[in-house]
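Key idea: predict the complex, not the pieces.
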Amino acid sequence: KQEVTQIPAALSVPEGENLVLNCSFTDSAIYNLQWFRQDPGKGLTSLLLIQSSQREQTSGRLNASLDKSSGRSTLYIAASQPGDSATYLCAVRTYDMRFGAGTRLTVKP
Amino acid sequence: SAVISQKPSRDICQRGTSLTIQCQVDSQVTMMFWYRQQPGQSLTLIATANQGSEATYESGFVIDKFPISRPNLTFSTLTVSNMSPEDSSIYLCSVLGGYNEQFFGPGTRLTVL
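Result:
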């Protein structure tokens, strides 16, 4: 059974800092990995999708990497802003989709 | 990408009553999913709903408690029946788009008193 772990559970940084969120998974036989953003009490917004054959994807200030063999993905956020404050969820698709518990990010002005 | 809307966005209900949540997608999709997110927790899949067939429920979820309808390729409903305070959660509708990218609706925030 696929298990997804996200570290750290919470992170607080000053505005402008570059930061890395980590995601690990136990079964490397994945179809894809997806990073989501969730604001309090809201739904999930898809940020980046990485197919199993890809190593990384970029969108604006966000860069996600995938290392299937080691069961790891990282989400890099450059020049963080207060508007980036949210919970970031990693999800891995094998025969179904499994979610990590999320990293709650606070960016302080 | 798929644009998903849900109604209601939030509701406060009394114990023992039922609530039906609607999910509308702006394009035809084969697979729709219903998730629950309890306070402070990650997402848990309730069931997968394919048009023209019975929904498939995950372990711990039953049709009598969470009946689902899927009348066409753009719409689904989830009913939370005989509610108790433990059903207080965010309920999320989701679809699978191109390249197996998953998209989510804005959620329905349910509070049961």
